[in-house]
Specification:
Shape: globular
Structural class: mainly alpha
Radius of gyration: 13 Å
Low-confidence stretches: 55-62
Helix content: 40-55%
Number of helices: 3
Strand content: under 5%
Mean pLDDT: 82
Order of helices and strands: HHH
């Protein structure tokens, strides 16, 4: 079943939040969850670009594909630095 665009990657974001809550003093233990979230977001951004779907958010042209995803450049930079 396909998720609504703004709900995509929500499961990954919730898993990350649970991990961070359980590992308050060791967030590095949650890197695998963070990577899965960012990989999901990256896929959404790429799929969105292929479909040329943009949404105006807060007066800017930032693509808003999911409430669980940070800005695209943040996702791309993190994934580049964490292969």
């Amino acid at each position: 079943m396909k998720q609504e665009p703004r709900q995509s990657c929500q499961a990954e974001a919730c898993a990350l939040q649970s991990c961070l809550s359980a590992n308050t003093y060791s967030p590095e233990r949650c890197n695998a969850h963070l990577k899965r979230l960012y990989q999901c977001c990256s896929k959404l951004y790429h799929d969105n670009a292929e479909n040329n779907v943009k949404e105006r958010v807060n007066g800017s042209d930032q693509e808003s594909i999911s409430t669980a995803c940070p800005m695209q450049m943040v996702v791309e930079r993190w994934l580049k630095n964490h292969p």
